Amino acid sequence: MKNLFYAFLFFFCIQSVQAKDGYDLWLDYSSIKTPAIRSEAESFFSGIYFFGKNPTYNAIQFEMEKAIPIMIGKSPIYATDRINSAKMWLGTREELAQVIGLDQQMEIKNLGDEGYWMGPIEFQGKTYFSIIGNKPIGVLYGVFRLLQEIQREQIDFKEELSDSPKVKIRMLNHWDNLDRTVERGYAGFSIWDWHKLPGYVDPRYIDYARANASIGINAVSLTNVNANAWILRPDFIEKVKVLADIFRPYGIKVYLTARFSAPIELGGLETADPLNSEVAAFWKEKVGMIYKAIPDFGGFVVKANSEGQPGPHEYGRNHAEGANMLADALAPYKGLVIWRAFVYSHEIDEDRHKQANLEFEPLDGKFKENVIIQVKNGAIDFQPREPFHPLFGAVKSTNLGMEFQITQEYLGQATQLVYLGTFWEEVLKSNTYRPKSSSTVAKIIDGTDTGQKLTLMAGVSNIGTDRNWTGHLFGQSNWYAFGRLAWDPYLSSEKIAEEWSELTFGPKLSGIEKIQGIMINSHEAAVNYMTPLGLHHIMGRSHHYGPGPWVEGGRADWTSLYYHRAGSDGIGFDRTSSGSNALNQYAPEIAEVWSDPKKIPEKYLLWFHHLPWDFELKSGNSLWKEITLHYDQGVKSSRSFLQTWQSLENVIDEERFDHVNQLLKIQIKEAEWWRNACLLYFQTFADRPFPSEIEQPEGDLEYYKSLSFPFAPGIKPNW
Amino acid sequence: MKNLFYAFLFFFCIQSVQAKDGYDLWLDYSSIKTPAIRSEAESFFSGIYFFGKNPTYNAIQFEMEKAIPIMIGKSPIYATDRINSAKMWLGTREELAQVIGLDQQMEIKNLGDEGYWMGPIEFQGKTYFSIIGNKPIGVLYGVFRLLQEIQREQIDFKEELSDSPKVKIRMLNHWDNLDRTVERGYAGFSIWDWHKLPGYVDPRYIDYARANASIGINAVSLTNVNANAWILRPDFIEKVKVLADIFRPYGIKVYLTARFSAPIELGGLETADPLNSEVAAFWKEKVGMIYKAIPDFGGFVVKANSEGQPGPHEYGRNHAEGANMLADALAPYKGLVIWRAFVYSHEIDEDRHKQANLEFEPLDGKFKENVIIQVKNGAIDFQPREPFHPLFGAVKSTNLGMEFQITQEYLGQATQLVYLGTFWEEVLKSNTYRPKSSSTVAKIIDGTDTGQKLTLMAGVSNIGTDRNWTGHLFGQSNWYAFGRLAWDPYLSSEKIAEEWSELTFGPKLSGIEKIQGIMINSHEAAVNYMTPLGLHHIMGRSHHYGPGPWVEGGRADWTSLYYHRAGSDGIGFDRTSSGSNALNQYAPEIAEVWSDPKKIPEKYLLWFHHLPWDFELKSGNSLWKEITLHYDQGVKSSRSFLQTWQSLENVIDEERFDHVNQLLKIQIKEAEWWRNACLLYFQTFADRPFPSEIEQPEGDLEYYKSLSFPFAPGIKPNW
Start and end of every Glycosyl hydrolase family 67 catalytic domain (chains A, B) (predicted)? Predict the structure, then answer.
């Protein structure tokens, strides 16, 4: 009977969590199956002792109440004294000073404000499993790590484990508008319900904070970089304060976007000139008002003089003058200015690729120390694949931060499974050859090679009101991977895929490695059916949904023709010295190799070279044939993903299986659409047949060109 | 041990459903506590036999699989034969013809296509609990009723029970735009994810169909009446078809809004003149295309020549000519035209109140038989309280349908608890004196007094992407009440509140009657703090959020001043013969009584009369004093709701308790805001002190006037 009892209970546990709609993310705790881990965990969780009291410890307790009953079938028990009833110790180094040795204190101190140490501590003949940080937030990070290790059923409670973040500011950039639309958002609408704030606190805000803290994200910018000044009004700051109060115990600071022209729009001034004293006074007053409500406010994120946004150029001032004026206002409160390097003027430069370096290299050393320049991973705009941005390594005395795009604006939006970990790893591992010959983007970002103290990795959020947060279940893996890489830019994307998939589907899921396989191959597949061999910016206009290699008219550098330059003579953008010479913005070691179309990695070929259709590639194939093979391979890969997924039908819960299954079918259609549209279009220039090895592109080019999507998500439609 | 086992199981059942986020609506099945009902249900559900096969029976089975395991702790068992293993019979009258008597067949036949009968049937010495309809949909309705009766723990399986709807078309009107914004929607965004359709079917679509079917809603119009013609394009019809396919087994037909100018926008014609043969051909082709995809398509909902929407007037044609042209296109497929009576022209009429009657009375008898005129409950626009629309009873040979607004555009939107059942009951029970002296609005709507066969009740949906569907948990009660009143317009709102609250919170909840008490009193409270004594249309401009009695400028009948006409001489809109004489559009019996400010029900006083501030009311109070007392009472009522709710803290689950608790606090603030703003404003005309009995209005009128909400939900902001 007793066995039946537990059998039933177990069955019921399973049943009761069957409705897996993805809301719980990677915090979807489940019952631990490995007996040894389960019983050890059960023992430690029966005597949890906190060495202090503070809101972050309350957050730890809240998390334990959620996790532990599900993991081990029993509620956590809190010890009333540190010795007799305690089995697990939680606290800061200072709080535990009396029970740990000096060496260990030193070891922990070196982990910094956000690091943690965990392991067994022997004290007066008894072992206490302990999690210690230098600050409470370190303890929280440690507890999340512990829960993850237990959940993945790989913990050894006898071993010591410590970690600390390599990047200081690990930030989500929401491109959320105040009317709850999200620019380039594909998971519904903004989770910030401004209208109901401050009176109504959606429980989702807390789950959002939990999820971020669990992967080490410690900063969020709540509003769109194409900002509305309204967010800086007192009534909105009152709303922001509520969010900041919720996020604080989770170690998350709030940032806001600052519209450069706010002094005019909100302050009634006639100018926003950064050197005007009234303008400076306006910002000082605003900043003071904000800090009064939010004493740990993070600072401003600014997009200025880019794509029509206002900025210092209107007044003949440069980016440094603009940023420094805001920095002065924020400095007394230790606030930061995060100034975006994604700039290009109304007048079209010869090559948009060069714009950021042209504007920011001359300003090197001129920015105040509480300013960070936030640089997109590549020089164009979050294309499916881009070589790293040439600003990395080009400046010496300027704080540079990385901006990745988690939301899949150009990578299938919410209908495609594209794991971005591999792509980001590729960027971070890219050798910059500056400042040191061994330098990589990661070593610049985390300050290793630059000595930069104020470090930043920002990701443009893919989060919305969809129940599963990210629209596509696998979009969660990109949120997760971003957080993990911001914490440690040297992590391998395979390891991250392993972690995420195990936490999401369970470590013992038979076939979990198949899921990881799909993830690892998904980015290359998407690049193949979208923009192989260095092609870029050939998507549909405005909404960026689907292929649009024929897009022309209007501003040149917003068209596809500008970027692919296909003609009877060949295809590709010449950025060598015979062309725009953007290559020259990279280190000479790179410029030299990449200048040669026979030596450049072929994934970047058409990014830098305009080549004839019969140019011979390493494979011996002509350029035309290689292009067609890549597009065809992309489609085949997407089909293989579906096939692999369907082999998991009986091991994955029905709701999530079906969700991904439907989306993978859409992905195949969209991959075919990309292939057919692009190849039929390029064929009109190449004037060559499709090779027999590939599936012949179907359909009519005019039909593909006729498709229109005025209500595609992520944009503000005009109607 | 066995007891412990069940005790634990029971405990676990409770635990496992603790996270009550409101998604499950009134279908939030829970364990049955009454032993007799539980065991009887257990018995019947162990031998369910379907007399036939069809998709609606699959839907029944789906529902049973959801409900029964939770209700009785055991899965349903399906019988393989109708006699031996069967204990419950489900099927249509025809399917069961061999096992039921002729009298009973007759009785069931009289219940019509959608009616159901349930009860015990004796056959060859054995009793079968049976649910029988004339069509499968009747069986589904019967099953939902059965589950509700069991859930409310009030069923007697020995008794017979039958019911059938009194109104033929019971419809939700979604005001959802194709970009997923919702006009006057306060629960997030449109649940129709057009972009991902047809490839991706959100499980929510099925839950939506279940919820509607469970209360008898059998029609939905998917798109906004301020329609975009795009919905009629083939690519969108392909998406609509997927929804229609999902809804069909649940007895729900899909309707679309038709933009009158679509022949120009989509067809490339130069005119949309309904008498133009190319225009007629355009619509015939469109309709044919739609029916090819959706053979049971319901028809079109049309807003024409109103608030700037295109219509037949542009071509010198009248509403009948416009509607009949569409009706001709739809007639071969038995499709309907639902033509809205909410019309007013660009030129301001003397009194907007009169517009619909002026336009539609002369057209009586001129509409085709597949046209229904959909009339809002009152003549202005869904104000907190309106007298019934004078079109009801004014026409003899025109199909009239009712349009209620479920979404609380003018009634607190999603931050206020306002149960609308009481208000709708008030409207439906209103005596029209036409066509019979005993006629009521309900008797016109359901055809009792008119002989009208094609009957309709439509409700403007309050549904959005919010997890709990309606923003405010109690918004669900309005969706529920609408469905129930559409099914039976004679139901009492108290009974409906009882049903909904029991299904939502559990029939055995101690204090359930307190919840019902809040509901029943909530509409009167809102009217008191918003628009007492017949005041109307004094809300904020455009977004309609909060008070705006000072709104002036622009089109006169979009201002507040136009409606309240406050001045030193008094307040109110004179619609008697000395004023606009709109009263004359009602039956003489009404016009006579309501013309007299001493006889008219005081709730309509200022709707029809302009009266001096010292006019004496039945209470003996002056008009000024009575107005202040009403506003003050509204605030006090809202405070009492919170107090009552908080007395339930320990009996309601934490998540829903906290949700409503937060919103009731907001409601009090908003009630105070209404009271303070309106009384301070009206005082500037009344020039009298506030009576000492009331809480003195606080704040500064200029401050209230300065508040602005450009990002309020439910509108398209301009920025």
Answer: 158-469
